[in-house]
Amino acid sequence: MQYWVDLAKAGVGPSPLNPEATGFIDLFTQGKLGMMTVGYWFAGILKSTDASKSHLDDFMLLPAPMVAGGKAIEASQVGTGGIINSKTRHPKEAWTVFEWFFGGKPADERAASGWGLPGFQSKMSKVPVATNFDKQTYAVVSNNVSHLTTIPNNPYISTTAIDTIFGKYFMPVYFGEDTLDGAIAKSKKEIEIQIRENKDIVGVK
Question: Which InterPro entries match (predicted)?
Fold first, then answer.
């Protein structure tokens, strides 16, 4: 967290102290942002965006940074699959569509486009490796898979709520009006209150 505060104060990129209305994709592909944290899916963005697709060798994917003495982990956070409601009136039909979308032709097309890794080992051969850019990004993400894990998720508080709490208590830190320890303690207290309240709502002790 100190690292994040230092980055915000240094103004090295968009932050609450240095807001930027332009989206990160445009900033990066237009050469206005030198580095950012994204996943393998971004290779597909670069290959399909007019501002970047003509000079792909100018870009490369790197393993995520890791603090000294830390453990390398790769946690898939978004875009990992789909769900079927348990109360659907057409479970067989829903499953047919599910299988087709995640295991049929659409899955083949997504794998071949380089917009993400397929959910089946049998489709890994479809991931593009024709260009130097493809080979480089694939080599990095293949190594990352060996560190794949999951991050525990608390079902009693949303990401939006946590973001709001952090924004509330960390903004004073950026301006020297509070300490990092103070912001962490206040954030922790409010998060615990919200979790307790949400548990009470659904009757969980």
Answer: SBP (IPR006059)
Q: How many domains does the chain have?
A: 3
For 4-48, give the secondary structure using H, E and C.
HHHHHHHCCCCECCECCCCCHHHHHHCCCCCCCCCCCCHHHHHHH
Q: Using alpha carbons, list the distances in angstroms from residue 183 to 4, 110, 166.
A: 13, 42, 8
Contacts of 151 (CB under 8 A, 6+ apart): 75, 77
Rounded to an integer, what distance in angstroms lies between the CA atom of residue 92 and that of residue 84?
10
- What digits encode the pLDDT tens for the residues 128-180? 999 999 999 999 998 888 888 888 889 999 999 999 999 999 999 999 999 99
160: left (phi over 0), alpha (psi -120 to 50) or beta: alpha
Q: Is residue 124 part of a domain?
A: yes
Helices marked H in the chain:
2-10, 24-29, 42-48, 91-103, 105-113, 132-145, 159-174, 180-202
**What is the span of the domain harbouring residue 17?**
2-67
Q: What is the pTM of this model?
A: 0.78
DSSP state of 58: G
Evaluate whether residue 78 is within a structural domain. Answer: no
The amino acid present at 201, given as its one-letter code, is: I
Task: Pick the last residue of a domain from 24, 51, 67.
Answer: 67
Helix 91-103 to helix 105-113 angle, to the nearest 10 degrees? 30
